[in-house]
Each structure stands twice: as structure tokens, then as C-alpha cells.
Amino acid sequence: MALRLGGRPQEDEEPGDDSGAGGRRERAAPPDPAVAGAQGHIGDPLARLPAMLTVKEVAAILRVGRNQLYQAVARGDMRAVRIGRTIRIPKTALLELLTSSPAKPGTTASPQ
Questions:
Q1: Are 110 and 77 in contact (CB under 8 A)?
Q2: 48-65 confidence digits (pLDDT tens)
Q3: What distance, in Å, lies between the first and last C-alpha atoms of the chain?
Q4: Strand pairing partners for 90?
């Protein structure tokens, strides 16, 4: 039992419980469906990605090596933004790559 401001003990609190709200924690409000719909499914991990990704992050998502991804950027297979010596890949470019139709075997995905 812990003492409240009025000096009366609360039955549902345990000694040492410093949560303040009678041991109960407030739940966060559910996300707004209009906002969630604009970003994809709530459980969709791609919806939680930042707008710009590093080459290392995209390589991990695609399960390819960094050098292979750098080569894809150099060929124009993947859109990227270069800031000085740093390369960032927009999330939209990753989503475009994932939703595009696969290339035929023996051909490259870049238009010529």
C-alpha cells in the first residue's frame, strides 16, 4: 500500500510503485485511420521507414551487398541522391524497385 496525496492508501498499488496513476498506465490513443491509410498498413514495416535511407539500410532490406547496391546506383537501376560523397536512397525509389515487374534473365533492369 502507498499513500496518496490525501493520505489514504490505495489498495491496487504495491510498495515502491512510483508510476503515479495508481499503478495504472494510460494507453496511447490508436492511430488515426486517415493518417495510417496514407502511409500503408499499420503493421507494414516499409511504412515505418524514413523518407531517405542509407545504402547500408537498403542493402540489408534487399539482402544484397553494399557494393552491389552502389553498382546498381551507378548503372541507374536505383534512383539515389548524392550529397557530397554521401548517397541516400529515397524510400519511394526502394518501393518502386520492389513493385516493378522482374527483368528477364540475362538482361539488366536499366532502360537503354
A1: yes
A2: 889 999 999 999 999 999
A3: 75
A4: 52
CA–CA separation, 46 vs 43, rounded Å? 9
DSSP state of 10: E
pLDDT digit string, tens, across residues 4-18: 555 555 555 455 555
Other beta carbons less than 10 A from residue 45's beta carbon: 9
pTM score of the predicted model: 0.53
Q: Judge whether 41 lies within some domain.
A: no
H/E segment holding residue 57: helix 55-62
DSSP bridge pairs for 89 = 53
Domain of residue 86 covers 52-99
Q: Residues near 46 by Cβ (< 8 Å), separated by ≥ 6?
A: 40, 91, 94, 95, 98
